[in-house]
Each structure stands twice: as C-alpha cells, then as structure tokens.
Specification:
disordered N terminus, mainly alpha, elongated, Arc Repressor Mutant, subunit A, 2 domains, 92 residues
Length: 92
C-alpha cells in the first residue's frame, strides 16, 4: 500500500468522528430549540397541536406504528424526540 493510501485511510476515522460530533451537536441544538415550549414527554393533545392534526389522526399514527410512543397504562406518551424524528427534523 502506498504511503498516500495509508495516510488517507488513517484520516478517515478522524473525519468520521468529527462528522459524528457535528451531527450530535446539531441534534442537541435542534432538540433544545425546536418545540422548546413543550415538555420532553408529550400527550396526544400536545402532539396533535404540534402536527396540526386531530387527536383521532394522532391515535391512528400511534396505533399503526408510524409515530413511536410509550404506553403508560392506557395513555400514550410521546417523547419529543420521537415527534422530531416523525417530522424528519432529525434522523433516527
């Protein structure tokens, strides 16, 4: 293997690590700034307000698995992170 190839391959992990750091920083900034007036764990009515749809539509999204959630007793709770992933603000 040539010296140039060795140097390039040895830099690749550092570049990937730097990109991961930037992506993590961007995700944390998005999480802090988008929907900052809402709690970290949302109920169905809050999710419907955020998405601009009815609560019936939110229940449909939850039941079909399109929107990830937690179920506590009979109540659906949706972490804000799941809503941001659903609207594709951040990737899963």
């Amino acid at each position: 293997m040539s010296k140039a190839k060795q140097t390039q391959s040895s830099l690749t992990p550092a570049i990937d690590s730097e990109q991961d750091s930037r992506q993590t920083l961007a995700v944390s900034e998005i999480y802090r700034n988008v929907l900052k007036d809402y709690p970290d764990i949302l109920d169905v009515s809050q999710v419907s307000t955020i998405l601009g749809v009815s609560t019936k539509t939110v229940y449909r999204l939850l039941n079909e698995g399109s929107l990830a959630s937690l179920k506590i007793g009979r109540a659906f709770k949706v972490p804000k992170l799941y809503v941001l992933q659903y609207i594709k603000v951040i990737s899963a």
